[in-house]
Specification:
alpha+beta; Rossmann fold; OB fold (Dihydrolipoamide Acetyltransferase, E2P); 2 domains; six-stranded mixed β-sheet; five-stranded antiparallel β-sheet; 9 helices; 19 strands; 25% helix; elongated; binds adenosine-5'-diphosphate; binds magnesium ion
């Protein structure tokens, strides 16, 4: 499948006066990549996706390009996109095969071609043998496979997903996420995937655009947005983060924080220091940089989450292996290695706005 790049320039969308759903957005999606739009509900993900699909028109002046071709004025039928939605949007009165073949019949493909494609896509999404089933006789996961098969059967230039797994239970969501990732790599197709789930975003995205209130606030690889978040919102949205207040200078150039001292020469001048809960190490008290008392420990199966009171306003979150036993009241020694300490303002990647506007 030959893939196409997507370029949005100055695409904004105002539905009601004075309430902008999407601020002027510039975004280039590489041919063949999977770009995830990630952010909380209402931040403009669906609006952006609909502008790409042609279901929505940007405000005057916005442009959408597929490759070099300006598609701004084209309706969805003429853009050659496949879409997969949370609610499946299948025809309930048609069989699995009829649903998948629907777009192919519209294209007036020969019968033999339609049958071959049906066999191919049903194999790709693991629906072999279910062609005759009625839609209502399928599980949620199977329905979403049908929707996926229908979207890829027409060999679209672009695949668009709007929270396709949001209605499924955790285990199925996880499995389908792996399968969709595998399929997208196989197809090599340009895909835009909308989700509010950060795990899904990191698992599927070649790059992730984090959105907040109608703007992209950071665009980067999953590792960049996780380890070098451009601002506190991103740091907090993509997983948990500790914010330690610097209470003054420590000994030999270190920072004093509640419960101890930290070594972070790269964060000189900062009033706060950030650290992910899983990067905090538990060490013997004599080796501790920070010490505190466990106020709560939550067993999570794979891990155990501790809340540690170090004397500051908010307790420190620490993730430790679940077989360690740290009951409430334990005095615990912690080490926060300097290469794991960060501050969004000192992140190695610049924010999206700086990247795109000189
Ligand atoms: N058709 C519409 N009419 C009015 N407001 C809308 C419409 N579609 C979306 N909005 C508003 O635009 C904002 C962004 O919506 P949306 O793109 O659906 O967000 P997300 O998909 O990130 O949850 C929200 O405040 C939403 O209420
Ligand atoms: Mg949405």
């Amino acid at each position: 499948m030959n893939s196409v790049s997507i370029t949005l320039t100055q695409c904004s969308r105002t539905f009601t006066k004075g309430n902008t759903a999407l601020h002027p957005l510039d975004l280039h999606i590489h041919a063949g990549e999977t770009l995830v739009l990630l952010g909380p509900s209402g931040c403009g993900k669906t609006t952006t996706l609909r502008i790409i699909s042609g279901l929505e028109t940007p405000d005057y002046g916005g442009r959408v390009l597929f490759g070099d071709r300006d598609v701004t004025a084209l309706p969805i039928e003429q853009r050659n996109v496949g879409m997969v939605f949370q609610n499946y949007a299948l025809f309930p009165n048609m069989s699995v095969a009829e649903n998948i073949a629907y777009g192919l019949k519209l294209q007036r493909l020969p019968r033999t071609e339609i049958e071959q494609r049906l066999i191919d896509v049903m194999r790709m999404v693991d629906l072999e043998g279910l062609g005759g089933r009625r839609i209502e006789a399928l599980s949620g996961g199977q329905k979403q496979r049908v929707a996926l098969a229908r979207a890829i059967a027409v060999r679209p230039k672009v695949l668009l997903f709007d929270e396709p797994l949001a209605a499924l239970d955790a285990k199925l969501r996880h499995r389908l996420r792996l399968e969709i990732g595998q399929l997208l790599r196989e197809l090599g197709i340009t895909a835009v995937y909308v989700t509010h789930d950060q795990d899904e975003a990191m698992a599927l995205g070649d790059r992730v655009a984090v959105m907040q209130a109608g703007r992209i606030v950071q665009l980067g690889t999953p590792k960049e947005i996780y380890h070098q978040p451009a601002n506190v919102f991103v740091a907090d949205f993509i997983g948990a983060v500790n914010c330690l207040e610097v209470t003054g200078p420590g000994t030999s150039g270190r920072f004093a924080v509640h419960g101890g001292e930290l070594d972070a020469p790269h964060l000189k001048g900062m009033s706060h220091i950030y650290c992910r809960p899983e990067d905090v190490l538990v060490v013997a008290l004599p080796h501790a940089q920070v010490q505190g008392s466990v106020i709560q420990s939550t067993f999570l199966g794979q891990t155990q989450q501790l809340m540690v009171d170090t004397g500051g306003k908010t307790p420190l979150q620490v993730v430790v292996p679940s077989r360690q036993y740290w009951p409430a009241g334990s005095i615990i020694g912690l080490s926060l290695p300097s290469n794991m300490l960060f501050h969004p303002e000192r992140s190695a990647t610049v924010s999206y706005q700086e990247q795109t506007h000189g």
